[in-house]
Design a protein that fits this description.
By secondary structure, the protein is α+β, with helices and mostly antiparallel strands. The protein has two domains: 113 residues, 3-Layer(aba) Sandwich (Rossmann fold); 155 residues, Tumour Suppressor Smad4. It is 25% helix and 33% strand. The strands form two sheets. Strands 1, 2, 3, 4, 5, 6, 8, 9, 13 and 16 form a ten-stranded mixed beta sheet that branches. It has a six-stranded antiparallel beta sheet with strand order 12-11-10-7-14-15, covered by helices on one side. Strand 5 and strand 6 form a beta hairpin. Helix 1 packs parallel to helix 5 and helix 2 runs parallel beside helix 3.
Length: 318
């Protein structure tokens, strides 16, 4: 049986302290009957894109991104439209795309997924001259992404503390949007343009989003009054944020956002300053990716589920 050539691209900054663990796990657990492997390390921002692009023309069959959503997206940009398959070993903070695809966060289990080599073809999204695989956002979302990326200590607690710090003082903005050529104007705290369903940390902002349906899920989120925040957070935790009266959702193949000034955009956890006009479009079936064989995860409700077993929050009628 012909072996596949596999390149692991490790971001040594993601998951500080995990680098040696990953190297040891690869050597110990990767199926050597199936794979010949090499390891490369990113040395600067977006180096993963160059390494992936080089791999795609050097007889590499699989590129495995070891890192967080930003590191994974760097590799995606180098592989889009090629025959090279992407694998993921999650080593970041939020790990949004890995969670969406049910890829284990445990290193050893993620390597077992690689060994079984079940593949899926998913969409990616283009915004102006940028590509992303998971989710993009403007407004408050982009501010938090920027602050979180600059933080010396990351993790869910830091993510939450930044939200609590900035939320009371952040002013909503009015956006002119075209959704499949239909113009609307909305005041929003933030707007998400989702290929996958979440930011990370299992924070599901777009419950209906699917990575292979050929659509972008547009989520327009209004600023929630402080008194209603606990109920809205409850909806978010139970994957029902789209039921909130403060959220509007649309499915689209193309979206245009127009603004009077340049926009800061959150692209899979990376904040990027872009033009006054953003054009989003789907690249259907453009990325081969390795997923768990079942790709079905039973979600256990949090232990406090019984406390909130009544619909105490405002829900939009369907």
């Amino acid at each position: 049986m012909k072996k596949n050539n596999i390149l692991f691209i490790i971001n040594p900054i993601s998951g500080v302290g995990k680098q040696k663990l990953v190297e040891n796990a690869i050597e110990k657990l990767l199926d050597k009957n199936k794979y010949d492997y090499k390891i490369a390390y990113t040395e600067y921002a977006h180096h993963g894109t160059l390494l992936s692009l080089q791999a795609s023309i050097q007889n590499v069959d699989i590129v495995v991104a070891v890192g967080g959503d930003g590191s994974i997206n760097d590799c995606v940009r180098g592989l889009i439209g090629t025959n090279v398959t992407l694998g993921i070993i999650p080593a970041g903070s939020g790990n949004g795309l890995a969670r969406t695809l049910n890829i284990p966060l445990n290193i050893e289990a993620a390597i077992e997924v690689l060994n079984k080599k079940q593949t899926k073809v998913i969409d990616t999204v283009k915004v102006n001259n940028k590509i992303y695989a998971s989710i993009a956002g403007i407004g408050f979302d982009a501010l938090i992404a920027h602050e979180f990326r600059q933080a010396k200590v990351r993790g869910f607690n830091k993510y939450l503390s930044l939200i609590l710090q900035h939320y009371p003082f952040y002013e909503s903005q009015t956006y002119k949007i075209e959704i499949d050529n239909q113009p609307i104007e909305e005041e929003a705290l933030f707007i998400s343009f989702a290929n996958s369903n979440q930011f990370g940390f299992d924070t599901i902002i777009a419950p209906s989003a699917k990575v292979d349906d050929g659509f972008i899920q547009v989520c327009i989120v209004k600023k929630v009054p402080i008194v209603m925040l606990p109920f809205t957070v409850q909806l978010l935790l139970f994957k029902n944020i789209d039921k909130s009266i403060y959220v509007k959702t649309f499915k689209a193949k193309e979206v245009v956002v127009k603004n009077n000034t340049s926009l800061i955009v959150n692209l899979d956890g990376e904040s990027v300053e872009m033009e006054q006009e953003l054009k989003f479009s789907v690249n259907p079936q453009s990325l081969n990716i390795i997923i768990p064989k079942s790709n079905v995860k039973e979600r256990k409700e949090p232990s406090w589920h019984s406390i909130f077993n009544q619909p105490l929050f405002p829900i939009r009628n369907q």
